[in-house]
């Protein structure tokens, strides 16, 4: 049972006279019934006027029968010390009554609320709900639920404080106590009203955990400058920040309102606030789907293909990349705005990736389509593989954001297997390289290679060569199979990088060595799960 009691009479009278809408009056009377706020504006106005005109006993109430769970509240400020939630003793002071009849209701219908600036008026009506839903439907998203968010003008917090101080002042003048309750937050009341309407129109439930967000951004240019006096009173609260067009953000204003003294606030702002001429503007109605993550393994068969776009000083060096060959198909099918590519390590442009391939994951940002069957993912994988002979993808699947962490963990912890074609300046025989097969757990000190020094910090990294196996080809060539710790620079282990990697193949063989070809044969990360063909 949510109700107005006799103690609410002066609050209703003051705010109604000041130009406050019925729903905001219910908020200031701490009415927590969700269903009550959903009643039409005219019905609520009629009930408030009947409440003011009633001559019932002080403990009687005028209410609409509804039952709701407890509401979420917001405390504006601590009320009068020692005040108790009780009925008034003695006679109720005579207060001027609101105008009666249709004229009063017609007037209230066109008058913009001095507190919510019309958000709990026009923007709760069916026409606005339909406008929001038309925007959602035209954007062509897949979703099974939604979360609704609202961005309010920061000056609403100022007006809310002014209205509350006006109520407090009036009650003090009348010698009436204040209840230790909290007013209902505007955003909360708005969602109580609009959630059921959106759910009915869209055909899906509202869910606070939904990944599909419908958001509305409100603005009120007429009252934009109402926050500015706070910058003089509390300059520490308003500091320029990146990506913020104005210092008067909602959080900055709230922080300043917490700091400013009541008497200073009253000097600068009328309490209750005056009514504006115009309604708020709904600047933006936006939709956004939470990111979808796709993982798999890729093989790279070209020695002229970078993993990511190779662009130097704005100039593209090669026409494509592994990232682009995979992502262009995913972007088209998921209808996403953008993507982020990550993988378990990376290979150089001239290095092939063979075997089971390298694990990768792609985050698809704001996708319109999110539901894919296993068969559809298989067809998408085939489309990627048919589009190029430079790469192949396997085990393509939808994964969670949390699962991608397993790929990154394995990047540093697991082993990798390589095959290197090596050249030596002096002739070699089979017996000259046979000893390499017997070396186990060879410790290397690798100073940051010269070729990556422009993008990696200078450091000496300790790495392990777990095993090596040599294959003699001719007097100047042999192939070396290596199993190494992740993060080992193989090219530098072969040629020594001017002594920056010690030991190296050149120093072990006591001759100059260089690497002609390098292949990644396996990346031993057990992710993503292998799928049946």
From TrEMBL:
GO molecular function: metal ion binding; RNA binding; tRNA pseudouridine(55) synthase activity
Record's GO cellular component terms: mitochondrion; nucleus
Translocase keyword on record: no
The reaction(s) this protein catalyses: uridine(55) in tRNA = pseudouridine(55) in tRNA; uridine(54) in tRNA = pseudouridine(54) in tRNA
Subcellular compartments: Cytoplasm; Mitochondrion; Nucleus
Signal peptide range in chain numbering: none
Domain (Pus10 N-terminal eukaryotes) ranges: 113-287
EC number, as in UniProt: 5.4.99.25
Keywords of this entry: Coiled coil, Cytoplasm, Isomerase, Metal-binding, Mitochondrion, Nucleus, tRNA processing, Zinc
Family assignment from sequence similarity: Belongs to the pseudouridine synthase Pus10 family.
Segments forming domain Pus10-like C-terminal: 293-524
Protein name listed in UniProt: tRNA pseudouridine synthase Pus10
